[in-house]
Hints:
By secondary structure, the chain is α/β, with parallel strands linked by helices. The chain has three domains: 10-183, Rossmann fold, CATH 3.40.50; 186-338, no CATH class; 346-479, no CATH class. It contains 25 helices and nine strands. The chain has helices at 10-20, 39-46, 63-74, 78-85, 106-116, 136-149, 168-174, 185-195, 206-215, 221-235, 240-243, 246-264, 270-274, 276-282, 292-302, 316-324, 330-338, 346-349, 351-356, 363-378, 385-400, 408-424, 456-476, 478-491, 493-500, and strands at residues 28-32, 52-56, 91-95, 98-102, 123-127, 154-158, 175-180, 443-444, 447-448. It has a five-stranded parallel beta sheet, sandwiched between helices. Strands 3-4 form a two-stranded antiparallel sheet. The protein is elongated and about 95 Å long.
Amino acid sequence: MITDDKQTNEHLRSYINYYTGLKNPRYAVLVKGEWGVGKTHLIKNILKDDQKFYVSLFGLTTIQEVHSAVFVKMYPNRSRLKKILNWFGSSSMKANDVTLALGPLVGNIANALIKEKVDNSKTIVFDDLERCSINLEDLFGAINKYVEHHGCKVIVIAHDDKLNDELTDKKEKIFGQVIKVTPDIEGAFNQFISKSKAPIAFEAIKDIIYKSFLASECKSLRILDYMINDCARLLSCIPDKLYNNKRLLSEIFVLFTALNINYRLGKLKAKEIESRNSVLYYVKKDTNADDIYDEIKENYKNHEVPLRLESDLLSNEVLIDTIVNGLYDKDKITKSIDNSRHFIKPESKGPWFTILNFDLYPTTDVDNALEELYKQFEEMQIIENGEIQHSINLLFMLSEAKHIDKTIDDIYLFFLEYVRKLQKNNKFPPADLFTEYEPIRDSAYGYGYWINDSYKHYSSKLNKILAQQQQIALRKRYPQFLADLRNNLKEDTAKFCEQISRN
Length: 503
């Protein structure tokens, strides 16, 4: 059932109706609330156009601009403006989106006219108080002039937390009533869903994303609207096999909405989304550090909404594409879901994948994967940077857990020997010829490396050593590169150009 905000904010509606019915209240009303809760929307619904002069303070820098903006709203008819101001000549004064023709006497005379020519038949609504750069004390003085001197009814919309604490006394003298707006999340949610491009399709996830929004502790209806639009775009990219699986739908959309909301709130940055996997594995690397993921997890736990931040249904790349860049590539999203641990066969990833997800498999399967890992090391089949780092870090973890009889030092020495063995047998894949710098990564194939405090000093060395070995492998191939270039310069100029081009 679609509801509206009448019941939720009936106190606001009732008081505004009472206030606007007063003849000369001699005080203003402050309507406050968090960013995006719908303060402006509510006031515009309560007061129709013929009941108010709506003035946005956004971008205004002087008191003169405030008076000019009010004047233009009160006298919007251009011919009437010209009649009032025609004796000022040909200079100009800009107020909001209207330019008034003024003249050489514009100074004190025009200012006086604009300040004194006031229509108090309607309520003045000042919006975006915190978004103008005028000194608040001066601004309150101008507002007070409309209230005290001209007998106007004035409503000011603001994020009250942004107001200067030093002006509390001044504020209390001007505002006879302060009303806090409460967001009608349920009503807005139903309304946004009904207006979306696929309201029927939303039935499968409606309850999921509503509970996720509540768990996020976000109060902004703007962000709620954005989130629903983003969910609609993601929903259109989800393969059919997920629609009938409530558990996986919940996993994917709770993850997506939790990160989406906190990114829009400014609490999460792109780099933190990229590191979400590794954060779960070694978040305790600095027990004194406050972590945004701890806050998110605590909020969802308190609302009893299951959130799996480590879920691989949506890879970090997909999350960055969708949440940060607004790109919804259906093929890439489908591939990410297909490659998740819910659908991919362990053997297609390698033994490290089974060990990493030991909680999903019987102990015998994990032990078999460990034997296969040793075998692949023996046969030098593990050559990719990410696969090596996953495998070695997992051996570190198993050593720490006393599941294998090798010490952490033993495993690090084993790694160094394996690297030398690969290089000696020319098994190392070379570094990219045109990449000058390879950033240090803490994840590969969409999974963070399993890094704990007891061995992170070794883990931090793995990437550097592997990068050095790849550069050595690249230099080994220089003679062959040169021979190929010379041959292609003679035989295939197109291929030659391709070889020397970064593109």
